Structures are given as structure tokens and as C-alpha cells.
Amino acid sequence: MNLPNVLTLLRVAVIPVVLGLFYLPYPYARQVAFCLYAAACVTDWVDGYLARLWGQTSKFGAFLDPVADKLLVAVSLVMILEARPGGILAMLVAIIIGREITISALREWMAELGQRTSVAVGWVGKLKTIFQMVAIGCMLWEIPLLGIPIYEIGFVLLFAAAALTVWSMLLYLRAAWPFMKEDHPVR
After folding, report:
1. CB-CB contact of 98 with 141 (8 Å)
2. Which residues cross the membrane (predicted)?
3. Distant-in-sequence, close-in-space partners of 181: CB < 8 Å, separation ≥ 6
4. What is the distance, to the nearest Å, from the Cα of residue 13 to the centroid of all Cα atoms in its chain?
5. Burial code of 103-125, b = ≥16 C-beta within 10 A, e = fewer?
6. What is the chain's alpha carbon radius of gyration, rounded to the nearest angstrom?
7. Which of 9, 100, 111, 138 is deepest in the core (most CB within 10 A)?
8. Residue 149: which residues within 8 A CB-CB, separation 6 or more?
């Protein structure tokens, strides 16, 4: 077990702690949840960077990293939606979680065809991740900071994240489309 994989496992382990803190009826519990969430978001970048830098990439890490990301995002979005239910927020959450499920399935299928690199993460997907993480962080924080409406900023950023989510999904589907045709040879 190397440090990058330990960081990824810690990202998974922090999810129930963030969940518990989010629902505690204590002042600033959500802000502590935000701090742990933010630390988990930072490890998303750090673990991959260290794995590449130190030549410690592994099949386990390649599997666990996207799972950790998707769990953190999905659980956080469901918590936020449960705390402030609404049709528009529900639509944004459904778009983001639905895309994650769709692209995960697409990547698995493309890997079976030996075409995993055809649906590699591109710059739109990375930008989507940044917007998504910042939006969720703002919405977890919730309360205004120095008069700045943090939750509302997060809500607007979640719209941008949802738009980038759809755009990146369309790019992935376009890249996979030639392999989806019935006349394409399967290995």
C-alpha cells in the first residue's frame, strides 16, 4: 500500500464523517464538514500527482480514485438536496449523478472492447470537476462569509458544473459512438 492509495482510501473514509457532521445540530458543524470535504478534494489531485511523480500508479489506485470521487460527489449532492429540496436543485443533482453513472458504464464497456483510452478524461471533464467541487463546497459551507452569499454562489456554480457535465458527456459519447454501431468489429 503506497501513499497515493492511502490518500484515496482516506478520501473514502472521510465521506461518512462529512455526512455525520453535515447533520449535527451544532454551530459550525457544516463548516467543519466543508473543511474535511475540501481536504478530500485536495487529495483527489495530490494522490494522482504523487502516484505519477513517484511511479506508484497501480490498478487498485486506478480503480479506487474515480470511485472515491464519485462517492464523495454523489453523497454530498444528495445531502445538499435533502437539506434544501427543490425542483431545480433536484434536476442539477440528477444531471450530475446521471452523467457519472453513464460515463462509468461507458468506460467499463469501452475497456471490454479494448478502447478505454478512447474515453480518457479530457479538459472539459477536468473543468467540470473543478466547478463541481467548488460548487458543492460552497453549498456545504452554506452560511454567508463576510457578507458574501456562499450558498447562492455555489448554486450558480452548480449550474455551470451541470452544463459542463452535459458537454463532457456528449464528448465522451461522441468518442464512443463509432464503437456503438452494430457494424463495428468487436475484439
Report:
1. no
2. 6-25, 71-98, 119-143, 149-173
3. none
4. 15
5. beebbeebeeeebeebbeeeebb
6. 18
7. 138
8. none
Q: How far apart are CA 171 and CA 187, in angstroms?
A: 23
Residue ranges of domains in the chain, CATH in brackets: 3-180 (1.20.120.1760)
Note whether 43 and 7 are within 8 A (CB): yes
Q: What's the one-letter identity of residue 131?
A: F
Cell of 43: 487529495
Count of residues making up the chain: 187
DSSP label of 119: G
Nearest CA among 155, 133, 139, 130 for reference residue 30:
139
